[in-house]
Amino acid sequence: MKTDFRPGGLPAWIGSLPVRDHDEAVRLMLEYTPEIPIWVQLPHFRAEGMVPQFAPGMPGLTETGGKFFIDSGAETFDHAMLGFFEDYMAVTHGHQSIADSRFALTVKEAPGFFTFMEALDRFDGTPVAVKGQVTGPFTFGTGLVDQDGRAVFYDDQLRDAAVRLIAMKARWQIHRLKKYGVPVILFLDEPALAGYGSSAYISVSRADIDACFAEVIDAIHAEGGVAGVHVCANAEWPLILDSAADIVSFDAYSYFDKFILYRDEVRRFMEAGGILAWGIIPTGDVGAIEKETAESLYEKWKAAAGQVEKLGVPMDRIVSQSLITPSCGTGSLTLEQAGKVIRMNREVSARVRRE
Predict the structure, then answer these.
(1) Cβ(182)–Cβ(128) under 8 Å?
(2) I need a labelling partner for 56 at 20 to 30 A (CA). Which of 7, 131, 290, 309 fits?
């Protein structure tokens, strides 16, 4: 069984908002998703980008002209790499607390996380779960480059370090968030997986990605977390459905027809207790945001869920093992558009749970 957590159609967010104030982001989040509070990221702040936010701690990390890269040609690099793995082993073997390690997030790169925890400390409700996120190992490894502009994913040693760094950043979040006594959901954001199989990643094998996922998901489980993988476009879904991930988060608004092609994999995933995070609220198409209503999106979800039901999965089980989410973050939208998305998300979830 993948997880005994059952969200029952509750609403959740993917992670970003188009606001400039972390306190305002937390206020909106607690208004619309108090059952599953999440750490909101604000793209307005450069430090909260997918690579910069989680790169600190990598051996050889260098910043020049506002750009991060790994200088593997530096004289001190071998020593830095040795120090990284010594720190990794010290934490994984219990000789050092992860809270005090190089793998901890800081207020500098993740101010929203600390604002989030401060708000949870004051929150007078009882969440069903709490949610964090980290850039997935494939997206991180193909987004971070060395001094020659080559993605670290293509260097075995640097890939190993990058994947372990992401695994430990995920563990650190769970370590901090499990103080609230409810399940901690930790999403791996993997937009780059949409390009897997294309000429851009022609030399990347499925075994490479499977190994990356196994490392990070095993770390999440070891810390007691619930592991989710989010892809905001189409992907080779068996990569995720056949992994140890507990939650598969997908754009159900635009790509459900592609997702449901993998009938056997979807059925096995659900039968094993896996959770579908239905990204049924559009975020990538402004016209769709303006056109759709909570009613129309509920009907779209119901039709899609009906196709899963035809695979032999009872509807009550589908609802039990579902989250209702936007298709992706709302950070690139206007505040008005994002507001409509988060309102429709809550309304669709309420309809799913009621009916």
Answers:
(1) yes
(2) 131
First to last CA, the chain: 27
What is the rounded distance in angstroms from the CA atom of residue 37 to the CA atom of residue 40? 9
Q: How far is residue 276's CA from residue 318's CA, in Å, rounded to a whole number?
A: 8
Residue bearing tokens 């303006």 = 290
Q: Which tokens sit at 43?
A: 């793209």
Residue (of 45, 43, 52, 40) closest to 15 by Cα position:
40
In DSSP terms, 227 is beta-bridged to: 186
Other beta carbons within 10 Å of 137: 29
- Cα separation, 50 vs 30, in Å, equals 24
Q: Quote the pTM value.
A: 0.96
Q: What is the pLDDT of residues 206-261, one digit of tens each?
A: 999 999 999 999 999 999 999 999 998 999 999 999 999 999 999 999 999 999 99
Residues 6+ apart with CB under 8 A from 29: 13, 17, 37, 38, 40
Nearest C-alpha neighbor of 138 from the set 214, 24, 252, 76: 214
> Rounded CA gap, 301 and 348, in Å?
9
Task: Please classify residue 132 by burial: count the beta carbons closer than 10 Å to its beta carbon, then call 0-12 exposed, 13-18 middle and 19+ buried.
Answer: buried
DSSP 8-state class, residue 7: -
Does residue 65 come out as left (phi exceeding 0), alpha (psi in the -120 to 50 range) or beta? left
Q: Note whether 252 and 280 are within 8 A (CB).
A: yes
Sequence spans of domains, the chain: 10-354
**Residue 195 burial class via C-beta count within 10 angstroms: exposed 0-12, middle 13-18, buried 19 and up:** middle
* Tokens describing residue 61: 């990390």
Dihedral through CA 177, CA 178, CA 180, CA 185, nearest 10?
Answer: 70
Architecture per CATH, domain 10-354, reads as: Alpha-Beta Barrel (3.20)
What's 15's DSSP letter?
S
Average pLDDT of the chain is: 95
